[in-house]
Amino acid sequence: MASEYVFISDLHMGGDEQLTALDFEAELLDFLAELEERGGDVELIINGDAFGLWEYAEVTGTAKLDRVIEDHPRVFEQFRATGEVIDITLIPGNHDYDLACYTSYIDRLAAYNIVLEPVVSITREVDVDGGDEDETPRIWIEHGQQHDANNRMPDWGNPNALPVGYFVVQRIVAAAGRYSGRAKGDWLRDIQSVAPMEEIPRWLLSNYFYREMSPYLRAVVIPLLLFFNITLLYLFGTVLEVMGILPSAFFTDNPVIHALGIGEVVLEFIIAINIVIIAILLLLAIPLWLFRRDLRKTLDRFGVMLSGVRVGQGDEPFLRAARDVLEANSDVAVFVYGHTHRASLTRWGDRLVINTGTWLKKLQHVETWFSRLPGIYYPSFRLNYFRIFPEGDRIVVEYEKIETDQSLDLTRFQRLVARRPPAAEPIPARTVIDPNGTLETPDGAFERDSDTGADADPGSGKPFATVDGSDGDRADATDRTGEERD
Question: Basic and acidic residues composition bias: which ranges (predicted)?
Fold first, then answer.
């Protein structure tokens, strides 16, 4: 039993080609070195997805971890040094599920003073004062993939029993890593930060428009897009003039427009092109709608979803799992998980649910200042960790955010047109609970619909609890990029 536990997760070190790049290497080295310098009775617990082993397509078996170590020698040497002073424990997630399948990984990681526990979940005791010796408060720790239908391991420890998420990563993410060198810049490797994966087509379109498209073609397309709304307004105004509601001086015979000279000709040319585009879209709208409707019916008849595998399910399954664990184990005071890449702290009375977030780059879709231009995926980092330790007869949870000077990695044009994303909701720097207190889950949370058998309000983002445990907004530090990436 350590006197302090430190939690991080979802580092995702490793992958083909540019996927193995570690943007936060300097910060991770400093974090581990600080733990080494501070020392003490501390245990660092990495609760899953430390490595991106699924992101390898050309390397197989235990050689995947060797490749990670080869690509990041400084990190592993620091693991070795830190592990000589404090305990370091690692449990598998879904992206490094291989760790649960081959016992040889235990000795391989032990060489760097990392203790691998190849199980779904572990617990740790918190030595508070005056506690019941028969019921010492515990922390429940897992990665969380078992509550994700697309990433649940059907036969834990079997390397051939893989969920659909593995094949999605192999077909899409690993492939992007192999082709990342062909892109203009290294934007393609950020595919592992796109969340949820349904966003990938829109993310690809955005990066094609702002990074890959010929600048000459973009110079032609941008005015057409910017004037699209003006064209709609012009058409609407012209109809009002024909109906006699507005005088002709507003649109068709506007003296200000006539005073533009050659500018009037250019404006009329752009409006004419947009009118043609609108007419074509209107002509195609009905047959395309009928075709899509018929295709959906056909795919439904064969049991195939038109939108493919959907992974953006929100936090409800994980919070439901936390509630079940807390209700079944009165001695569990804190439930810790990761997987969704959304750091958060949820308080239910004197019980806490913690999501350890991710150290990967986060991408948040934002609209542009100019309508019709594709949205932009705004990059940011939220490098963080949680500390849990006893203080008298209480349990204290401290949240620390590591500052980074990583660049925004946006083109000049993207910086010009992008709106600023809303700031992430803060996580309390310090939260104190009484392990002898009660669990208070919000009324009606996670109930199942009695008629459909479905979860009530799935994916609605309905609030669960405030930081003081009352009903209302959940103390969620989500960067609202969507749902989980995996």
Answer: 471-486
Whole-angstrom distance, CA of residue 381 vs CA of residue 300: 40
Edge-first strand order for the sheet with 4-8 is 115-116, 87-91, 42-47, 4-8, 384-391, 394-401, 430-433
Superfamily of domain 4-179+316-433: Metallo-dependent phosphatases (3.60.21.10)
Residues pairing with 334 in the sheet: 139, 352
Q: Spell out the residues 6+ positions from residue 70 whose beta carbon is closer than 8 angstroms to its own.
A: none
Tokens of 360: 């990967």
Between CA 366 and CA 339 the distance in angstroms is: 23
**Residues contacting residue 416 through CB under 8 Å, at least 6 positions apart:** none
> Which segments of the chain have a pLDDT < 50?
303-312, 448-486
Domain boundaries, the chain: 4-179+316-433, 213-302
DSSP assignment letter at 75: H
Residue 256: exposure state from Cβ atoms within 10 A (0-12, 13-18, ≥19): exposed
How many alpha carbons lie under 13 Å from residue 347 in its C-beta half-sphere?
A: 22
**Dist CA 396 CA 266 (whole Å):** 66
Q: Which residue has 């104190």 as its token pair? A: 432
Strand partners, 337: 355
**Model-level pTM?**
0.78
